[in-house]
Amino acid sequence: MTTRTTTATGLLLLAALALAGCATSPGAGDTSGTPDAPATENAAPGGDAELDAAWLDGGRAIGIVTWGSSSCQPIAGEATASGQTVTVEITDQGDACTRDYVPRASFVPLPEGVDPSQDVEVVVTGTFAGDTDLDGIPGATPPAAGEPAEMMPSAGWFDDGGLVLLTYGSSSCPPMFETVELGAAGEVRAVEAAAAADQVCTMDYAPRLSVLGVGEVSDDDRPGELVLVSATGDEQRIAITG
After folding, report:
1. Can you tell me the distance from the alpha carbon of 120 to that of 53, in angstroms, rounded to the nearest whole number?
2. What one-character DSSP code corresponds to residue 165?
3. Of 65, 74, 73, nearest to 38 (Cα)?
4. Phi and psi for 146 in degrees, rounded to 5?
5. What are the two backbone dihedrals, phi and then psi, of residue 59, each rounded to the nearest 5 degrees?
6. Residues facing 3 on adjacent strands
7. Residue-wise pLDDT tens digits, 45-89
8. Could you tell me the pTM of the whole model?
9. How far apart are CA 237 and CA 106, in angstroms?
């Protein structure tokens, strides 16, 4: 569970992410759910940006959620740590972007020395200056120096009805989703859309973050599992942190 600068409510399913207009940076992804937009762009009461955060990769990384254009993902710098405070600069990518206003997530590896089993304060500087908190993950262990990411899908809650999904693949072709909803067994089901026949993707293999919305889910009733359904019908079960 996170404590946010401004509480976001009323998540709705969105149309597929528009990629035209700006290049997509590593860590970019589909935005399939969105809270109600703050009254002032990028800002919450007190002048701080609207921020949220979610644990990813078992506590080895954080997905930081900011608001802005769906076609121009923000750029995150290298994170630093002082005790249990993680600081990272996140800047806007450019001006040639669509004028929608949705949550996007930036991939931030957890800096060395931070204990993911304890509460963490996340401080963001740059375009999206503000701060938010992450509750510790019981039993999580700090990543060892130089420990590589597992490069497996993972997910974490950042809001009562919103989660961040981490997948790996081409940075220019993040996954799109036809539906994101609660399943009959209480799990979250996310069904990927088929790629366009003329889609061209870069050959890199990078983290992609997708912000998914599943409607109003109380803090005590958050599902602990995401079923990721590929466009061909294959299912993969992913534990959701938070």
Report:
1. 10
2. E
3. 65
4. 80, 5
5. 100, 5
6. 133
7. 445 778 999 999 999 999 999 998 888 889 999 999 999 999 999
8. 0.81
9. 23
